[in-house]
Target: Short chain dehydrogenase
Amino acid sequence: MSDQSTQEAAVRTALVTGATRGIGRAVAQDLAKDHVVFIGGRSAEDVERVRAELAGVGPGTRPFVADVSSDEQVAAAWAPLREEFPELNVLVHSAGIAPQSPVADAPREMWEKIFDVNVISVAQLTRLVLPQLRAAGGDVVAVNSGSGFTANPSGALYSGSKFALRALTDALREEERGNGVRVTSVHPGRVATDMQRELHDYMGREYRAEEWIRPEQIAAAVRLAVDATRDAEVEVVTVRPSGMV
Model:
């Protein structure tokens, strides 16, 4: 094998969905230090903006422009990456939506949409890239939520999807243990993101970013799972606001 081929084979890769804002963006920025990061997002413009921000950092980035709820778009975005990189070291599921509604006011369409984006799309993308993850002995990290453990008024939609995501990752972890793929579920409390601002608007509360977890702290939790030595598997990480600020 040539020196160039050896160098290319040693490059670690990471696909991050929802990488254009919030937690996903922080995760992409962190992993870009030592991974070729596939920047996932629905908007090509937003994806290219993040790629420009990361220009010159680490081994580079690639675009992954797709609506995760569209199997066709996801497959089209994945095809050239699979061709260029036969292995995938890290898959981070950070794309998600968080509509709020009392059960009495939530039509079927709201339930279908949130489960499609937050659960079914996670399962389908994971299924698509599992051969490359298995080849690399890779990691799947699902950014879940504290709402994956408890539910509050108007939170049945979001918590329901996050409970389901926790079940998905628990099952996947056991299924893939023999294939060398590790699976981690990260459960943040409230994080200072656009989604948190929107939630505060819904609740009619003042949003103060300094009261909540910085996205970089969730990226650190993802990094903990990814960098764990192969004798260990970081299965569940919960990160809560300290209340000390």
